[in-house]
Amino acid sequence: MDRRIPVADRTGQRIVAETARRSENRYGNRPTMKDVAARAGVGLKTVSRVVNGEPGVTPDTERRVQEAIDALGFRRNDSARVLRKGSTASIGLVLEDLADPFYGPLSRSVEEVARAHGALLINGSSAEDPEREQELVLALCARRVDGLVVIPAGDDHRYLEPEIKAGVATVFVDRPAGKIDADVVLSDSFGGAREGVAHLIAHGHRRIGFIGDMPRIHTAAERLRGYRAAMEDAGIPVEDAWMSLGVTDPRRVRKAAEDMLSGPAPVTAVFAGNNRVTVTVVRVIAERGRPVALVGFDDIELADLLQPGVTVVAQDAAALGRTAAERLFRQLDGSLVTPERIELPTRLITRGSGELPPAD
Amino acid sequence: MDRRIPVADRTGQRIVAETARRSENRYGNRPTMKDVAARAGVGLKTVSRVVNGEPGVTPDTERRVQEAIDALGFRRNDSARVLRKGSTASIGLVLEDLADPFYGPLSRSVEEVARAHGALLINGSSAEDPEREQELVLALCARRVDGLVVIPAGDDHRYLEPEIKAGVATVFVDRPAGKIDADVVLSDSFGGAREGVAHLIAHGHRRIGFIGDMPRIHTAAERLRGYRAAMEDAGIPVEDAWMSLGVTDPRRVRKAAEDMLSGPAPVTAVFAGNNRVTVTVVRVIAERGRPVALVGFDDIELADLLQPGVTVVAQDAAALGRTAAERLFRQLDGSLVTPERIELPTRLITRGSGELPPAD
DNA sequence: ATGAAAGCGCTAACAA
DNA sequence: TTGTTAGCGCTTTCAT
């Protein structure tokens, strides 16, 4: 008895489970091609042909299948398709923060290219955290995205080696990959910053401050390097107090700006390392009486309508995304072999703030 | 002979194909659990246990399996997993345009909620095209996303009925669903616009213009309704020339603004229906000598630093996304049954432009 | 033109 | 603790 009851129980449970699976099925309760085939009175493969628009089906059969599809509300399960075919027709984009106005257009342009190739875009924000970047990238790889566009937060991407070897197309954007050889699409941060700072120097400034992002971020380091180069070109020795790198949190930037603009020999001009920094520096300058020259890296909306307009070194976020995505699909075509480093030019847009003369 | 050669050929080809599949395999050349099992000298299920952190594996076995995983660069194929388990742990977001500063924060907040639930976010831009919206939504459904957050472009979502019936959680944001009963999270467009326009009226304006998005867009219609209500509340008859609805393309908006601000009885104030419109109207006003009062729907960056600051009716894009996503996951929990309509309040932020007196 | 059978890589259910 | 078997829903291959 003791043994027989459990056995009966188990059998009973199995039947219940079986019934549940049939009627309330995984995915809620979705019809499969098999269901459509049964309803239309045709074979499974015929349904597959109709669904995928393959030839070799008489109009009459096609109509019957289509009716069954509509009646059942059938929708092909792409998971199964992917498993069989091996391609997901989707690419992943890992960036820092979708809410940052710099990444919106970038993401959109990647999406447009993906769409042109019939692929969907899956994206994730790393929040500038290397661990989260890796976690995200690997999750995307587990989903077998065909390719990956990565704006790296970390500086070691060796964890991607098996993936790349396995055929996952990969392009890094905005910052280079760390410790692996991969395609990179960048803006000319060094050249852009150098030009922006030289512009300030040309307008008579000598005490020029630089406020940028954390030095471990490649673009921040490059822009600082550009600043230093421009100063050196002009034979101006740089003082430590003029440079401040760190998080772009408004409080940190505000303090940095206020420090530079105070004291016995304040800077007369500031070069802001990115859009977040520029916005805060504009605020700080607006609050103070004395005019301070400003050039910012990245364009910002309404910059032309401020008094004075904000002079910027603009980079083309959409072009960055488009270039990267196109390269990604060329990798997938097989038409690309050697990793390359592509650098897009920046553009100085003068609007007033960068042309102010030194206040002293 | 004639028959044997082809047969031999076919067999030969089959062997070649077989070899190719094994070595250069789909997904490039990825090891499977079977490969890992063979290498570690254990059964398939043991590998599965290790990969998924299931109990019942001795530390020693686990170590051997882990070594095989690392050596082979194995990464679980989630497509297969999804096929078996029925849940993709991913949700879809369909919005208008990721490049629009309103949608960046919204998307980011949806992503954060998804992340907290262990889900990835797949997103797509409809470009305000109903067909593209449907195409995108159905593609996401074919991928069996667990849920869908949709900012609708179209006004008929009956195509979603089979999906919802099949268990796809669905929440509409920013605009209601058309012709189906579904969860909706909105900002109070009507109330916000009414308050904004009433604010202008309170500052002495009577000839007030309204420039908004295409009337088929729910928010645009609601804001226009709010405008009309405020005018009616004040007993001001509205003239047709004061209202202009259409695409938010800068050229169209510019022309609309210039028309309203010209002629014998120009408007003395403008209510701008969304952030895109506001930006263009600010430009038009700045170019003209005469001051014009302005209140815009949606906050915009740097609005506080313009001269005068731009008074806005702000909506909280991040809260919109968060609320929607949380509701989505509550649907998936099964803790939600009846579709609801949630309306988030807006907030009037006075900065100067909305407090200007009429110029005449 | 149509269908039957095999199997993609994984997990659930069961057995040992 | 470990392994075996049977699918998940689709596409591929091959017969008919």
Automatic annotation (TrEMBL), chains A, B:
- Report the residue ranges that make up the HTH lacI-type domain in this protein: 31-85
**Which keywords describe this protein according to UniProt?**
DNA-binding, Transcription, Transcription regulation
Q: Which CDD domains match?
A: HTH_LacI, PBP1_LacI_sugar_binding-like
- Pfam family, any one: Peripla_BP_3
| Keyword DNA-binding applies | yes
- Entry's Gene3D superfamilies? 3.40.50.2300, lambda repressor-like DNA-binding domains
Coiled-coil segments: none
Q: Which residues cross the membrane?
A: none
Alphabetized InterPro entries for the sequence: HTH_LacI (IPR000843), LacI/GalR-like_sensor (IPR046335), Lambda_DNA-bd_dom_sf (IPR010982), Peripla_BP_I (IPR028082)
SMART domains xrefs: HTH_LACI
UniProt-recorded Gene Ontology molecular function terms: DNA binding
Name the PANTHER family for this protein: HTH-TYPE TRANSCRIPTIONAL REGULATOR GALS, LACI-RELATED TRANSCRIPTIONAL REPRESSOR
Q: From the Swiss-Prot or TrEMBL record, give the protein name.
A: LacI family DNA-binding transcriptional regulator
- Species per Swiss-Prot/TrEMBL record: Streptomyces lutosisoli
